[in-house]
Write a sequence for this structure.
């Protein structure tokens, strides 16, 4: 496998490691963006109002049990007639990743907001903060640790599952695994797996640093 | 002035939390709502800043009805202090305090300056300014909670069991400090408590509510103890009413004659003690003449040590109420109550019979002035 990694031709070019990593990150980033766009507001709303708790718990469980591979095939078949370009494959892949990532983001956000000290929220209301100020000045900052933890597990899920994009003939690090399997090149498959793992760890580290920078020391109790 | 005009609160299922409450909390005074659980005292308080909406009736601030005001604007006029302080955990102490000033439009720098001043005001050093709430004890958090309510300099304040989540010693300190603060700032305050002692100690006016949210009595603490309106109020105030009254009759200068009390110091030999003693008990004081405890002359064998001291006697500070003076006399093993000055130095002792005479005199005086 070391030999595989030390071969410079494996790194460059349109199907080299660099290009695949970039593709992988783009799919993951786009999916994470849409997952946040859906999961964060729902989590904030349910946490703030206390309405729909049962609904999102059920929804999260249902989404978690979706078989990604089955779903992506189904979606490709459904979207095939709609799109003509690569979008026929990209859209289904992104949808699957988004569906995977929404539950942890939504649940983390909801749990974070719901766990905010009710006395602090009562004080904020009693001193005359308006509902949106309470949400953004008190509830959201206090919920950040749990939001970040949801975000981290969502990101890990996305990065590891983004390999299936290759299954429907797209790029990303999944190419190494799928193609390696097809060519019986086990070194290439192993290299793909290692790269996906390393990428996940690196991105996780980046989010960890981001969380340290944005979460108040009053919450982390770290000075 | 906060006025309740026939205010009621019903919940679905016909439960009545507050029933046609009409009363006035006078300007610059501390009005206390007290009563058993389920009497609607907290509900009544929370209706003032509309955290709970009244079912019927009106509440007026200085004659202005609250139900037509914008709810956030209304709340910004009223300081709000709650049981567990409810500080924002992600903000520093100074930022927490500055919040209410910022809400009322004070520029950031000025709000932080106010926060620093208020820290001193509530008995915390400015070293606390940049700490976070988790680094503070419960009592310190509560002080910050009070400072935060004061930062916008509101005319009115609502305090919901502000001192009940801390231990009794800290509670006593917080109460004393708050009384001092209120003498300076003279806010119109409504405070809720379930603790009748706290109500009698702090209140200018006490509102007793009974289960079901009806008014039982509105009176000054003195009146409440002297003339409870009915059995419910009498029961709620509890036993020791006669004794508690003594808490109000100030210990007038010369009211109880002070006797000179000879003192010994630690290390004194049994012989020295016997020379000093007027009876079995000798008062022991430190080098600053601050009383340490009583020594029993008959049982001291060698030079006087810490362990020989009887510590059962309480100290009454000169000028405190007859309740404290009587307690000092009752609790002292020698029967002589120790009176100390403001800095703890010995002023003299009082005998039980002299205290009884002073009480008798105060009683006759009080009865004489009553209609």
């Amino acid at each position: 496998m070391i030999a595989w990694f030390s071969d410079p031709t494996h790194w460059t070019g349109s199907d080299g490691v660099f290009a695949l990593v970039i593709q992988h990150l783009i799919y993951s980033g786009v999916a994470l963006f849409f997952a946040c766009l859906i999961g964060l507001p729902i989590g904030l709303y349910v946490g703030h109002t206390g309405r729909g708790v049962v609904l999102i718990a059920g929804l999260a469980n249902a989404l978690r049990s979706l078989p990604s591979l089955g779903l992506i095939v189904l979606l490709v078949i459904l979207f095939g007639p709609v799109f003509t370009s690569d979008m026929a494959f990209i859209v289904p892949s992104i949808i699957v990743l988004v569906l995977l990532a929404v539950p942890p983001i939504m649940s983390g956000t909801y749990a974070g907001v719901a766990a905010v000290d009710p006395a602090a929220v009562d004080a904020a209301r009693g001193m005359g903060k308006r509902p949106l100020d309470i949400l953004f000045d008190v509830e959201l900052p206090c919920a950040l640790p749990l939001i970040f933890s949801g975000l981290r597990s969502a990101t890990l899920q996305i990065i590891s599952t983004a390999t299936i994009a290759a299954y429907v003939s797209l790029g990303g690090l999944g190419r190494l695994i799928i193609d390696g399997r097809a060519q019986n090149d086990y070194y290439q498959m192993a290299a793909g797996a290692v790269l996906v793992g390393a990428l996940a760890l690196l991105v996780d580290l980046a989010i960890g640093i981001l969380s340290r920078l944005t979460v108040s020391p009053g919450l982390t109790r770290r000075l | 002035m906060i006025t309740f005009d026939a205010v009621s609160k019903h919940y679905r299922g016909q439960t009545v939390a507050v029933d046609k409450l009409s009363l006035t909390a006078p300007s610059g005074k501390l009005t206390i709502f007290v009563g058993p659980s389920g009497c609607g005292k907290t509900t009544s308080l929370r209706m003032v800043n509309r955290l709970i909406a009244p079912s019927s009736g009106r509440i007026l601030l200085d004659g202005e009805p609250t139900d037509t005001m914008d709810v956030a604007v209304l709340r910004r006029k009223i300081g709000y202090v709650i049981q567990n302080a409810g500080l924002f955990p992600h903000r520093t102490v100074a930022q927490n305090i500055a919040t209410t000033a910022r809400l009322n439009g004070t520029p950031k720098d000025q709000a932080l300056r106010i926060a620093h001043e208020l820290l001193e005001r509530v008995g915390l050093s400015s070293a606390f300014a940049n700490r976070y709430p988790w680094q503070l004890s419960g009592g310190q958090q509560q002080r910050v909670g009070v400072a935060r309510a004061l930062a916008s300099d509101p005319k009115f304040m609502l305090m919901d069991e502000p001192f009940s989540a801390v231990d009794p010693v800290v509670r006593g300190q917080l109460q004393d400090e708050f009384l001092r603060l209120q003498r300076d700032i003279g806010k119109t305050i409504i405070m809720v408590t379930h603790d009748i002692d706290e109500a009698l100690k702090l209140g200018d006016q006490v509102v007793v509510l009974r289960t079901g949210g009806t008014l039982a009595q509105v009176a000054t603490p003195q009146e409440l103890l002297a003339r409870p309106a009915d059995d419910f109020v009498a029961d709620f105030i509890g036993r020791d009413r006669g004794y508690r009254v003594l808490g109000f009759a100030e210990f007038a200068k010369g009211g109880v004659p002070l006797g000179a009390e000879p003192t010994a110091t630690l290390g004194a030999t049994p012989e020295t003690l016997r020379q000093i003693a007027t009876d079995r008990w000798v008062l022991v004081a430190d080098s600053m003449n601050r009383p340490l405890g009583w020594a029993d002359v008959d049982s001291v064998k060698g030079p006087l040590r810490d362990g020989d001291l009887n510590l059962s006697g309480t100290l009454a500070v000169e000028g405190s109420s007859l309740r404290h003076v009587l307690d000092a006399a009752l609790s002292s093993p020698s029967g002589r109550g120790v009176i100390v000055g403001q800095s703890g130095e010995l002023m003299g002792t009082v005998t039980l019979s002299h205290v009884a005479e002073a009480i008798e005199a105060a009683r006759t005086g009080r009865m004489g002035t009553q209609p």
